[in-house]
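Input record, target 12 of the design panel.
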């Protein structure tokens, strides 16, 4: 989870996906009162990681007090500060390397609005390293003609074993300064050249925002898996990031900040917020990928790939018409309640991977059970139980499984009695399952 300390920024990244948040003219700095609330929430919910960012977190006049408060109130939450590096170096004296790590997001010299800023950033990175901070360098690729040796050479010069990189994501429903998917083939070759430069220097690159699995060619991907496991492993599916604003509102990620937001304190823990966004944002955007070919891709169908950044799904998504998990549950329930289990099964089979979460799987098990398709009923019920985290749903699934006869498949035979049918029509509407890929 990430927390915005200051909306204002001293950096000038041409591709930044946080600018919509700044335009909203809301409060600039988070208050100490909200810091105290978040720290208590982090302690009570056993939050594992918190990244402090912005805008520019070093612009917050009380950064030192904020870090101290988190350390005192929720010592179990690991902290790191994400900075653009454009700040007065004396500010590093206000925080301790024992309390937080630092991730510096670094652009090529020509990409800073003020030409002096690049040297300032590098000076601050060096100072932080000398002071003993855990320092990670980050680089965002936002144009085709970037210098492929820039970040590998910088990481080498500064004695880093690795760096973090990604292809800059757009902002949903907003013009963005990033490379479009139609140019991904050429972009992938450039990124691959950067990774090769890094490997020559024995530097490993880890990926931040995931890329589609088809971004690299198969042979490139095989090489990447060997030299940059931290890039290969992050490719494919994208999950809610959870950025928290100074007002303690949560968004799925900056790229989707124009979509839903919720109040942090309405939820008991990070996991519940994560599920809320999965259901209300991801499931709404996932039915189609960023390429037309995604709809026929086995990786996309099986959930191994999200089809690129969800903010790229804008042009082809029809928010009204797409089949979400909730729609699937409702239509299957209607079919079962009106005595049409075949229809319920058909609806389930036609639905996309992202809609087939635990509740529709349970509904499919009920429908198959009613049709006497016991092997199918067991398989759906067992799968639903495996991916569900809802104890009530798990209990209902167990009850159904107890009634499924073992042994031979009895396709089309022994439909269950009216009494049994009524027992299993209560399909929960609530969607509280763990992710598909878990
Ligand atoms: C919005 S910045 C704010 C913190 C600080 N100003 C900085 O530059 O790191 C937080 C993170 O977002 C990343 N970021 C910014 N624009 C991005 C984009 N379009 N796509 C992916 N990551 C981006 C940066 O690399 C940084 O790690």
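The sequence produced for target 12 reads:
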């Amino acid at each position: 989870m990430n927390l915005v300390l200051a909306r204002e920024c001293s950096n000038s990244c041409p591709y930044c996906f946080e600018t919509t948040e700044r335009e909203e003219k809301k409060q600039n700095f988070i208050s100490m009162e909200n810091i105290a609330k978040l720290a208590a929430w982090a302690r009570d919910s056993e939050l594992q990681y918190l990244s402090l960012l912005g805008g520019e977190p070093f612009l917050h006049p009380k950064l030192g007090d904020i870090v101290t408060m988190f350390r005192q109130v929720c010592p179990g939450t690991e902290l790191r500060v994400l900075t653009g590096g454009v700040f007065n170096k004396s500010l590093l004296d206000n925080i301790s390397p024992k309390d937080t790590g630092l991730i510096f997001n670094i652009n090529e010299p020509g990409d800073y609005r003020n030409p002096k800023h690049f040297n300032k950033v590098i000076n601050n990175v060096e100072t932080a390293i000398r002071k003993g901070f855990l320092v990670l360098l980050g680089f965002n690729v936002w144009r085709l003609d970037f210098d492929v040796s820039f970040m590998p050479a910088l990481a080498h010069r500064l004695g880093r074993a690795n760096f973090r990189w990604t292809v800059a994501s757009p902002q949903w429903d907003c013009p963005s300064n990033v490379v479009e998917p139609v140019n991904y083939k050429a972009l992938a070759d450039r990124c691959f050249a950067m990774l090769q430069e890094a490997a020559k220097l024995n530097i490993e690159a880890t990926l931040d925002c995931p890329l589609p699995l088809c971004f690299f060619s198969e042979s490139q991907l095989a090489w990447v898996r060997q030299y940059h496991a931290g890039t290969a492993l992050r490719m494919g599916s994208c999950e809610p990031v959870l950025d928290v604003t100074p007002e303690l509102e949560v968004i799925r990620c900056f790229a989707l900040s124009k979509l839903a937001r919720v109040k942090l304190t309405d939820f008991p823990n990070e996991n519940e917020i994560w599920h809320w966004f999965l259901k209300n944002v991801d499931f709404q955007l996932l039915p189609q990928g960023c390429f037309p070919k995604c709809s026929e891709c086995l990786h996309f169908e099986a959930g191994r790939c999200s089809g690129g950044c969800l903010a790229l799904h804008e042009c082809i998504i029809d928010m009204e018409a797409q089949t979400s998990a909730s729609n699937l549950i409702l239509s299957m329930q209607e079919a079962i309640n009106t005595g049409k289990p075949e229809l319920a099964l058909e609806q389930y089979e036609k639905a996309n991977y992202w809609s087939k979460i635990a509740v529709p799987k349970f509904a499919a098990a009920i429908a198959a059970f009613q049709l006497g398709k016991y092997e199918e009923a067991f398989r759906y019920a067992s799968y639903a139980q495996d991916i569900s985290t809802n104890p009530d749903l798990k209990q209902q699934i167990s009850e159904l499984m107890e009634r499924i006869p073992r042994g031979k498949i009895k396709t089309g035979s022994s439909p269950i009695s009216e009494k049994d049918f009524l027992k299993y029509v209560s399909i929960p509407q609530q969607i509280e399952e763990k992710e598909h890929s878990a």
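The first strand starts at residue 2 and ends at 6.
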